[in-house]
Each structure stands twice: as C-alpha cells, then as structure tokens.
Amino acid sequence: MIQETITDTCHVCKSTNIVRNGTNRYGKAQYHCKDCGVYRVLKPKLTSSETEQQTVLRACLERSSLRGVERIFDIARQTVAQWIKAYVETTARNQREARACGIR
Ligand SMILES: [Zn+2]
Prior knowledge:
- This protein is of the alpha+beta class.
- The chain has helices at residues 50-61, 66-73, 77-100, and strands spanning 18-23, 29-33, 39-41.
- Helices cover 42% and strands 13% of the residues.
- The longest helix has 24 residues, at 77-100.
- The protein binds zinc ion (ZN).
- Residues 10, 12-13, 15, 33, 35-36, 38 line the site of zinc ion.
C-alpha cells in the first residue's frame, strides 16, 4: 500500500502551523494560521486561465447561449457575463481610440 502525506501550508506566510477551522457557507474547508492569524479556505477554487477565458469568449461570439456555455465549460454564467462586459468595454474603447487616431 502506498500512502501519501500531504502537509498544507498557509497561503499568506507559508507556515505549517495551521489548524482546521470548520467550513464556510459553501462547504469548503477553512484553516486558521496560528503564526499570522489569518482565516482562509484550505483549497481555494482555481480561477480560470487567460486562454480558457478566451475560449469561452469565442464560444459566446459564436452566439452560444449563456446557459449552454455555463453547462459546457462549468463556469457560472454571471462570471461569463462579466467577461463579456469587460470584453465589450475594452473593444469599444479600442475602437474609439482607433477612430481618434484615424485608423479604421
Ligand atoms: Zn500564515
């Protein structure tokens, strides 16, 4: 039998002097660091990478529904809506700057 020992560390100060501190309201395990005193989630949900965000935005530009994108990529549609809003704002800003410079 192979056993692995995992030692979790504080995300702030990298100390191993941490204790479990129950769960948050979403059921994720929390810890308390006895060295720096922070309370954090032990294994936070990973954020989407830039390339994954670009893939989701391309799927949205192909006129896929928000709920369809949510089901396919397993990303909340509120998050996708925020990405689309940021994309549209930066695109509009770039077009305005291009027009001001005389570029079409
Ligand atoms: Zn700490």
